[in-house]
């Protein structure tokens, strides 16, 4: 069954389609996950009405499939682990344990997939999501960008992380407790399984600027250090 909701199109697998009815949706007396309400059918039976956007949000499907390379990487990664063909739905629980890596110089950084709403093309004045510069903006703020009706600030962290300027192809839309920010990325690296990394307590290797933005230092199997970003600090 193909369903359109909130400007997105979904494919829902069902056992059978029984009927097509016009119904009045009644609100529920209490909140029930993934349902928008109930309805009385022609035969007098009660039916629950699915809320597709809630289901999609839970399974992390509310993403721009054309642009979201991170989700494609995640699908392939889990396909290998689970030995099933891609695509594989990456659940919210799985996303909390994965991080998207990128390099700045010889240092490896990562952002938890749970903090990334989507990836979009790097914003310029003539890109799909045009950037509007803000005169006199604070350091790091590149401007504002309209993403499907939402006005977000675009903030570069490159200088704070030790690089003056880097080429970017994508920006990550970070979402922390409903507060969003577009953040350019110099590259898209591998997905890192955080469960497989060892926590390091040595923060002396960080500059003062890095110390504000890095939540954890992790040591990978290759003994390489991974700096996991604190996205709350990035947004603030």
Task: Report on the architecture of this protein.
The protein contains 5 helices and 16 strands. The strands form 5 sheets. It has a 6-stranded mixed sheet. Strands 7-11-12 form a 3-stranded antiparallel sheet. A 3-stranded antiparallel sheet has the order 8-9-10, with no helix packed on it. A hairpin with a 5-residue loop joins strand 3 (35-40) and strand 4. The protein folds into 2 domains: 2-58, SH3 type barrels (Roll), CATH 2.30.30.40; 90-235, OB fold (Dihydrolipoamide Acetyltransferase, E2P) (Beta Barrel). Helices cover 15% and strands 36% of the residues. Residues 62-67 and 81-93 have low confidence and may be disordered. The N and C termini lie far apart (42 Å). The radius of gyration is 21 Å and the shape is elongated. The chain has 236 residues and is α+β, with helices and mostly antiparallel strands.
